[in-house]
Fold each of these.
Amino acid sequence: MNSDLKRAIILENYQNPHNKGLIHDSSYISINTNSKSCIDEINLELKIEDDTIKDIKFDGEACAICTSSTSIMTESLIGKKLSEAKEIIKNFENMIDEKDYNEEILGEAVVYSDISKQPNRKNCALLTWRGVEDVIDEKSNK
């Protein structure tokens, strides 16, 4: 994917994020993700039923990378079994950390494949993905 297309996808997901807006439903798991190094603070709501992520909502204040990454993450993970979501998240983390990853399962999330060139932005891209990973790990350990 060329850099102009990557930039366009990131900008579109920043300006018109998918699944933005919390619904405050008790059937959702609520978590707060925040960065220790910048302004990024995103609240997530996840609905998990039958070992499947049925819905993800988010809201908060964050930079373009964090907001767009969260938007793309929600689209990537909704409808996935927890094991599938975990695999997608692991591949996303590997991509950001410049390790081996399966590009095919990441979909639009591959737009962040060059984020390692800006090390200070890696946490912005990973913040909410790690939050969802924590929820999956907690659900898996029950």
Amino acid sequence: MNETTTMDALIDQIQALLEHGNDEEAAQMLRELHPADSAELLYELEDDSRSRMLQLLAWEEVAAVLEEMDQVDMVEMVKDLSVAELADVLDEMEPDMAADLLGGLSEDEAAVLIGEMEESDDVVPLLAYPEDTAGGIMNSARHMLRRFMTVQQAMEFLREYYADEHDLYYLYVLDRYQCLVGVVSLRSLVLAEPQQTLGEIMAEDVMSVPPETDQEEVARLLARYNLLALPVIDDRGRMLGIVTVDDVVDVIEEEATEDIYRLAQVGEDSEIFSPIPQAIRNRLPWLSINMVTAFLSSTVVALFAGTIGQVAILAALMPIVAAQGGNAGNQAMTIVVRSLGLGQITVRDAWRVLRHEISVGVLHGIILGLMVATIAFIWLGNPYLSLIIGLAMLGNLFVASLVGVLVPMTLSRFGLDPALGSSMFVTATTDILGFSLFLGLATFFIQRLT
């Protein structure tokens, strides 16, 4: 039985239990699942069934489920809870996740909830930062070590304050002004002599980020340096919080999804079963722009209507040149967009990337140009027509490499997402120039073709 079938069966079972009044049995089934599975199951239930289930769970159980959801789903899940109930749930949530939930509410609703919460001190500072920055996804800095502590004192300190901590990755050391001065690994702490001070065993070179750092850059740093956590500090070196690797797992998925959607000219909030009006709003504007570029391509073809009228076979051959150019351009563009996203290249590398992709494009053009020229000659027996389509293929693949690099690089240079509309501009350019090259050469050699 696959995972989808299992989840569907669980949903049917819980729905049946609720319909027969066996609420507690349904709640027990939910408790036995992983919070991520419980989140998916609850989201699929009807609104009244979901509300009944939430009332049967302890608030810490509800908090664990909500922490597996994104902001929009969290807000949808708790819409029927009272202010007092939601405040209790927020008190049980991790501060960064509680801040995300509050950020999805109106300012008035958030203010009322913060007033009702008992554990709002760790949450309120996080609301000051945009949700897509290091400050927005960090966890508040809790009890931290001091450099004058001995190893024995540090161990006792951890037992007292970190007994319930699940994500104990690194031990950060602060001075009296709350400034970050070092980091101690658990391995170093365990192997050190009990009377050694943390100042003697800590590493002073600590990688950190300011709170305004984009979440994608934080994820890139964690991945590049194989880190499990990254401290967030202000401009005076004071520690504000910690971003852990589990905080950025969803960020990586979110950013990758965003890039894929933008490459396809689809809105960032699109989902497979999003409401039809929303799906139309997300897609129609880009389709309209694509229609305009298609008319530009058609206009180019119309300019050569006389040539096509004299040599009708040109109409069958010209899509080959345009299609290969579009494919090659999108290949180059996708590699450049992904490399920019991963931090493998920057705008400063534009010339080096351009030289590489043009070399690849020209070689592809030569190989494919020879192939298509040979096929055209065998098929039609006209050497001039073979020469025309071969040269047009070479020229269009050169252009494809050029725009495949320059379009995303230019967007990045002006601070725009390089994935935004890149494929549309690349395809439009290769279509227009591909038709122009092929039909222009055909017009030049028209006497040889008729």
